[in-house]
Amino acid sequence: MIHYKSKEEIELIRESCMLVSKTLAEVAKIISAGKSTLEVDRIAEEFIRDNGATPSFKGFQDFPFACCISVNDAVVHGFPTKDELKEGDIVTVDVGVYKNKFHGDSAYTFAVGAITDEVKQLLAVTKASLYKGIEKAIHGNRVGDIAYAVQNYTEKEHGYGVVRELVGHGIGRNLHEEPQVPNYGKRGTGAKLKESMVIAIEPMINLGTKNIYHDKDGWTIRTEDGKPAAHFEHTLCIQRGKADVLSSFTEIEIAEKANKNLSSDH
Ligand code: MG
Ligand code: MG
Question: What is the number of the ligand closest to the CA of 168?
């Protein structure tokens, strides 16, 4: 069943999403070589709790951490660890917060210091594909229109692998609601998009093969060929004409740029 949201509910989801975005901006400030992803998780959790919310993922189906932190060949659902990030790594931080009985969800892949041009392009194309999907997330379209837009851009135009096993989702009182929002599919198919539906679109794009496997920790999803993967996610509300994006990358991108300039000064 799809839950359509009232204006008041949409504003509460926006509040949760904006806290997710602010948390990711805090993360952007501190991502650097030598930092462990466990430290990143701790800082994110503290920030979420200081702002009167709880991390949605902690305890969700027994996930043990506040954030999913996935490095290099880890696509999603990675565990924070004591391992230090290294120059040239990419790291996806996926954050959900629960506040006022509503969830917000967003993810961003960060570069640690200088990365190769090949990986830089993977990040740029994956982020752009999220916005291609959002362009199609309007009243009257179908889920397949979003899916096709993401797949066509990443797979057809750039030759990347689109993960099939994991999808975007409706969101609200529950972290995962209907409908499912895949990153591959046919135009004009799937659930109809209607005003006041709130969904998360989240392309998971691999530099190489689309195939993935489950790490033995039971959670982390990795690329079969060991090549890196990127993941960007926004939560948004379907409207007529243009989606209302409830999360934001603006502060994250500002912090990311400032962090980069800082590290290149040394
Ligand atoms: Mg997420
Ligand atoms: Mg999600």
Answer: 2
Would you say residue 1 lies in a domain? no
Question: Which residues constitute the domain of residue 225?
Answer: 7-263
Residue 75 within a domain: yes
Residue 37 CA from chain centroid, whole number = 17
CB atoms near residue 47 (< 10 Å): 21
Let me know if residue 122 belongs to a domain: yes
Tens of pLDDT, residue by residue over 216-256, are: 999 999 999 999 999 999 999 999 999 999 999 999 999 99
Whole-number Å distance, alpha carbon 238 to ligand 1 midpoint, is 18
What's the 3 CA to ligand 1 centre distance in angstroms?
Answer: 19
Give the three-class secondary structure for 29.
helix
CATH of the domain at 234: 3.90.230.10
**Total-model pTM:** 0.97
241 alpha carbon to ligand 1 midpoint, in Å? 25
- The CA distance from 209 to 222, in Å, is 11
Amino acid letter, 43: I
Distance, in Å, from the CA atom of 56 to the CA atom of 169, rounded to the nearest integer, reads: 15
Q: What digits encode the pLDDT tens for the residues 52-109?
A: 999 999 999 999 999 999 999 999 999 999 999 999 999 999 999 999 999 999 999 9
Whether 2 maps to a domain, the answer reads no
C-alpha of residue 107 to centroid of ligand 2, in Å: 8
How many domains are contained in the chain?
A: 1
CA of 166 to the centre of ligand 2 (A): 10
